[in-house]
C-alpha cells in the first residue's frame, strides 16, 4: 500500500472515531437577571440556572468539609460599575452522606439554582466572571469537572 493510501485510510479512521465519540455535558447552564427595567442604584439578582441530566448531581458552593467533591465556585471580575452584596446563594440544595469521601455533601439533582445580589452603581454595567463545578453520576460514579465564563450586560436606560 502506498503512503498516500495509508494517509487517506488513517484520516478516514480518525474522522469516524471523532464522529462517534460523545462529549458528556450533564450540566447545561443559563444566566438570567431577576428583573428587567433596571436603573442605576437598583439591587438585582444574577441567577444561574442549571439543568442536570437525570442521573447526575452538581455539588453546591457551600460545603462543610476539607476533602470531598469539588464545590461549585464563582469568580467575578472586579469592576466599579457594580457592587456584590453578600455571597452566591444556592437555592434548595439536598444533603447526603458520601461514602467515598466519608463526609456530608450539599448537592443538586435534576436542576440547580444559584443567586448573587448586586447593586448597580453606574449606567449600563457589564458583569463578567467565570464558574467552575463538578458533576458526578449516581449510576457509575463518573465525575466531570466543568467551567465556563458568564457575562451580564445590563441596560439601565430606564428612568
Could you characterize what this model shows?
This protein is mainly beta. It has a single domain, classed as Immunoglobulin-like. Helices cover 11% and strands 50% of the residues. Strands 3, 4, 6, 7, 9 and 10 form a 6-stranded antiparallel beta sheet that branches. A hairpin with a 5-residue loop joins strand 9 and strand 10. About 11% of the residues have low confidence.
Give a topology summary.
Elements: H1 3-20, E1 27-33, E2 43-52, E3 56-59, E4 73-76, E5 82-90, E6 94-98, E7 103-109, E8 111-120, E9 126-137, E10 143-153
Signal peptide: 1-21
Protein name: Thiol:disulfide interchange protein DsbD N-terminal domain-containing protein
Keywords: Signal
> Can you tell me the CATH topology?
Immunoglobulin-like
Radius of gyration: 21 Å
Task: Output the helix-strand order.
Answer: HEEEEEEEEEE
* Quantity of strands, as a count: 10
Mean pLDDT: 87
Structural key phrases:
159 residues, mainly beta, Immunoglobulin-like, 6-stranded antiparallel beta sheet, 1 helix, globular
Amino acid at each position: 500500500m502506498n503512503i498516500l493510501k495509508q494517509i487517506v485510510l488513517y484520516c478516514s479512521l480518525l474522522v469516524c472515531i471523532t464522529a462517534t465519540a460523545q462529549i458528556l455535558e450533564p450540566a447545561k447552564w443559563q444566566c438570567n437577571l431577576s428583573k428587567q427595567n433596571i436603573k442605576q442604584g437598583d439591587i438585582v439578582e444574577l441567577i444561574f440556572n442549571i439543568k442536570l441530566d437525570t442521573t447526575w448531581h452538581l455539588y453546591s458552593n457551600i460545603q462543610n468539609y476539607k476533602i470531598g467533591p469539588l464545590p461549585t465556585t464563582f469568580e467575578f471580575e472586579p469592576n466599579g460599575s457594580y457592587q456584590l452584596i453578600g455571597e452566591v446563594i444556592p437555592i434548595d440544595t439536598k444533603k447526603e452522606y458520601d461514602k467515598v469521601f466519608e463526609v456530608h455533601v450539599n448537592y443538586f439533582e435534576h436542576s440547580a439554582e444559584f443567586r448573587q445580589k448586586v447593586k448597580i452603581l453606574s449606567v449600563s454595567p457589564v458583569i463578567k466572571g467565570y464558574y467552575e463545578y463538578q458533576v458526578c453520576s449516581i449510576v457509575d460514579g463518573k465525575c466531570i469537572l466543568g467551567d465556563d465564563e458568564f457575562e451580564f450586560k445590563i441596560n439601565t436606560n430606564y428612568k
